[in-house]
Amino acid sequence: MLASGLLLVALLTCLCVMVLMSVWRQRKLWGKLPPGPTPLPFIGNYLQLDTEQMYNCLMKLSKHYGPVFTIYLGTRRVVVLCGYDTVKEALVDQAEEFSGRGQQATFDWLFQGYGIAFSNGERAKQLRRFSITTLRDFGVGKRGIEERIQEEAGFLIQSFRDTCGAFIDPTFYLSRTVSNVISSIVFGDRFDYEDKEFLSLLRMMLGSFQFTATSTGQLYEMFSSVMKHLPGPQQQAFKELQGLEDFITKKVEQNQRTLDPNSPRDFIDSFLIRMQEEKNNPNTEFYMKNLVLTTLNLFFAGTETVSTTLRYGFLLLMKHPDVEAKLHEEIDQVIGRNRQPKFEDRAKMPYTEAVIHEIQRFGDMIPMGLARKVTKDTKFRDFLIPKDTEVFPMLGSVLRDPKFFSNPEDFNPQHFLDDKGQFKKSDAFVPFSLGKRYCFGEGLARMELFLFLTTILQNFHFKSPQAPQDIDVSPKLVGFATIPRNYTMSFLAR
Ligand code: D3G
Questions:
Q1: Are residues 126 and 285 in contact, defined by beta-carbon separation less than 8 angstroms?
Q2: SS3 7
Q3: Residue 42 — pLDDT band, cuts 50, 70, 90?
Q4: How many angstroms separate the CA atoms of 147 and 152, rounded?
Q5: pLDDT in tens, 155-170
C-alpha cells in the first residue's frame, strides 16, 4: 500500500517535471530571438540609440551582439541583419519568409499599406506584377525608353549650356531630367523644365526624402503614434506627401475624362483599364487608392534615388579629378564626340561601369534598406523570429563589407576592376536589395545612370569652387536615405 502510494507520487512527480520541461523548452524556443539590449516599456531601446546616426549606432551594436540582433524602436521589434553572408542567407536563401514589408513610418503616414512599395501579401504581389509588365509595355528594358532617356539627356545638356559656366546647385537640374523619364511613363508626357508645378513636385519629393534622413525623421520611426499629432518638421513632410498625392489624383481624373480603353497612353491609363476589367472581382487590388499610391511610388522612387545618386556622383568626381579624367578618356575612345551615347556602349566601357558601381556603393542611397518583415514564424540560423517581426537588411554593411572591398570606406573604382582593367562584378553590390522585394526599377535606374553620366561627361568637365582636398564627400544626413552635402559647381564645355 505504502509502496504503491510512493510509486504514484513518483510517477506524478515525473509527469509534472516532464510537462514543465516541455513547456520550458517551448518557451525557450519561442524566446530564441536574436540577442540585443534589454528594452524598456514603450520607449524600447531609445536610450541605446542616437537618431542622428541610426546606421552607425546599429553597426556598433552588431560589434557587441553579432551580425543578427534584436532592437526595439519604441515598441517596434526589429531584427537587424549585418554583412553580406547574413543578408544574403535571409533575403535570398529564405526569400519567401523574408518577403514581407516592414514600416517606413513617414511614408506610411500617407500610404497606410496601399500602393506597391509599402504594402504586403496579395496586394504587393498583384501590384508588383502589374507594374513590371506595364513598365515593359511602355518601353522599359527596350529601345523605347533608351531613346526617351537620350532625348531627355539632350535637354539637360542644353540647360547646363545655358548656365554659361556659372556656379550652380545641380540638384533640380538633375531631378527635372531624371523625373521626366518616369513621368513620361506614368503620365504619358514629360514636364517643361520651366513648369512651376513640376518644380514644386520636385521640392516635395526632395523635402520628404530628406526628412526621412534627419534625426526627427528617425525619431518618428520610434514614436509615430504620438508624433503624428505633434507640431514639428514631420508636419511639413506630411504636407509634401499630401501635395504629391493631390497632384496624382488630379492627373488620374484628367486621364479618366479622356480615356480610350483601346489605347492606353501611360501607366495610369493601363491601371484604369485593369480596374474596369476587374470591377466585378470582389477581391481585386485594382481600385482608385492603389492606382494613386502605386503611381506615386513609381514617380517618387523613379525620381529621387537616381537623381540623388547622380548628385553624389558629381561631387565624388570633383573630389577625384583623376577619375573624371579617365572617364573622359574612355568616352572619347569608345563613343567620341559626334554621336549620343547608347546603352550598348557600356559593354566596351569597363572603367565607366566601375565608376558608376562605385558611386552607387559609396553613395549607399538606402543604408538600412526598405524594412522587411517575416511572413511566418521563421527559423534563421539558431534563432526563431516570430511572424510579422520587422527586419532591417543593412545594405550599407554589405556595400562596405571588408570581405568584398579592400578599402570599403574609400571611393575607389578599382573596387570593381581586375588587374587587367576589366570590369569585376561583386556579389556585395546590393544597392537595389535582394530577394523577392528587390527594386524592380533596377534596369531603368542603371540605364539612366549610364546614359546621363556619359552624355554629361561627353559634353562638359566639372569645376568646383573648392580644391579637391577641401571637398567633403561625407554625407550630410544618414537615416532612411543617405543625403550628400550641398554644393555648387560649374559645367565647362569641352
Ligand atoms: C518613397 C516614397 C514613395 N514611394 C517610394 C519611395 C522610395 C524611396 C526610395 C525607394 O522608394 C526605394 N526605391
A1: yes
A2: helix
A3: very high
A4: 9
A5: 999 999 999 999 999 9
Amino acid at 413: P
307 vs 171, 272, 288, 303, CA distance in Å? Answer: 8, 29, 29, 6
Distance 117 CA to ligand 1 centre (A): 7
Bridge partners (DSSP) listed for residue 246: none
Span 404-463, pLDDT tens digits: 999 999 999 999 999 999 999 999 999 999 999 999 999 999 999 999 999 999 999 999
Distance from C-alpha of 21 to C-alpha of 29, rounded to nearest angstrom? 12
Radius of gyration of the chain (CA): 26
Q: Is 292 in the pocket of ligand 1 (CB under 6 A)?
A: no
273 touches ligand 1 (CB under 6 Å):
no
Q: Is 473 in the pocket of ligand 1 (CB under 6 A)?
A: no
Residues 6+ positions from 225 with CB-CB distance below 8 Å: none
pTM above 0.70, yes or no: yes
Cell 561625407 belongs to 474
Q: Is the CB of 210 under 6 A from ligand 1?
A: no
C-alpha distances in angstroms, 195 versus 66, 302, 306, 311, 401? 51, 19, 21, 21, 43
CB 74, CB 44: distance < 8 Å: yes
- 19-39 burial, b at 16+ Cβ within 10 Å, e below that, comes to eeeeeeeeeeeeeebbebbeb
Please give the grid coordinates belonging to residue 447. 540605364
Return the residue whose CA atom lies nearest to atom 13 of ligand 1: 301
As given in the structure block, the three cell numbers for residue 20 are: 514543465
Q: Would you say the CB of residue 117 lies under 6 angstroms from ligand 1?
A: yes
CA atoms within 13 A on the CB side of 49: 25
Tell me the pLDDT tens digit for each residue of 73-131.
Answer: 999 999 999 999 999 999 999 999 999 999 999 999 999 999 999 999 999 999 999 99
